[in-house]
Amino acid sequence: MIKPRLEVLFKDNMLLVVNKIPGMLSQAGSHSVRRYCISDESIDNVFQRLSIENYLEDLKYDYDVLPKPLHRLDYNTSGCLMLGRTSRAAKQFSSALANNRVTKEYWGLVSNLDKVYENEGTITHPIALSSSGRPYLGGEQKAHTRWQILRHDPITRTGLCRFIIQTGRKHQIRLHASEALKLPIIGDALYGEGKQSDVLYLHARSLEFERFYKSSSGKAYKSQVKVEAPVPREWTKKMLECKFDDFVDNNSLKGFGLS
Q: Which superfamily is assigned to 1-33+44-99 in CATH?
């Protein structure tokens, strides 16, 4: 397998944040990946798919241990993925992620947006799992999603929506967007009208968290870190069609006559 380039967005002595490629497993061997992301393939072929595990040796740098992914992104979701470089870092920031000390912002292109009656709001519908493992609205597990319409194109009925999640339920944004907002993520084959081969227009745009460092004099100080991932090039044509090009990174515009 020829590995595509994986962009490292942030690196210090404890953490890495990479820009996950759409179509990459963030944790190979996940049942959810097997069941929902490659339903047309046999389980025997799951490890032939591109995985973050293909990059861990390269991401060691000068450390002796492999970095560990600290959270999951769906197979076709791109963007910020945090890895702990040591066992201590993995434990500390896994706890930070679980206790909302890391702000996770996503961007999604949503369909069926005729008019914008509300620009923002909060969805608190709980999410449960069926006996087959498929998520649905219901049950008692809290799920909290803040949303905001950043841009609206009435011609294509498309919206660029920001989502900030305070819980990490399976398929939370996709389910809340489709079932609660009635604005499915474009390309979502499970909750929308997409096909398995379509681009899923959901992107982990940023992670924001606190880090503590020591200055050259040995004095400790706190730094608020925000890591942003540019939207993938696969989004460019759709973003230009909707006139959302000011949200596209300049490198992604190369070849489209706008860079």
A: Pseudouridine synthase (3.30.2350.10)
The fold for domain 102-258 equals Pseudouridine synthase (3.30.2350)
- Cite the DSSP H helix spans in 187-247: 236-241
- Between strands 220-228 and 120-123, the pairing is unpaired
74 noted as active-site residue: yes
pLDDT in tens, the chain (259 residues): 578 899 999 999 999 999 999 989 997 554 433 333 434 444 344 335 789 999 999 999 999 999 999 999 999 999 999 999 999 999 999 999 999 999 999 999 999 998 777 899 999 999 999 999 999 999 989 999 999 999 999 999 999 999 999 998 999 999 999 999 999 999 999 998 877 767 899 999 999 999 988 888 888 888 999 999 999 988 999 999 999 988 987 655 444 444 4
- Residue 89, exposed/middle/buried by CB under 10 A (0-12, 13-18, 19+)? buried
Give the tokens for residue 31.
Answer: 């049942």
Distances (CA, A) of 5 to 2, 72, 119, 233, 242: 9, 20, 36, 13, 28
Residue given tokens 């040796």 in the structure block: 57
Domains 1-33+44-99 and 102-258 share a fold: yes
Four-point Cα dihedral 124, 69, 194, 146, nearest 10: 20
Choose, from 40, 58, 74, 246, the residue flagged as catalytic. Answer: 74
Residue 254 corresponds to which tokens in the numbers above? Answer: 């190369």
Give this prediction's pTM. Answer: 0.86
Q: Cβ distance 253 to 246 under 8 Å?
A: no
Helix (H, G, I), strand (E, B) or coil at 245: helix
**Alpha carbon of residue 239 to chain centroid:** 18
Residues 72, 128, 204: CA angle, nearest 5 degrees: 25
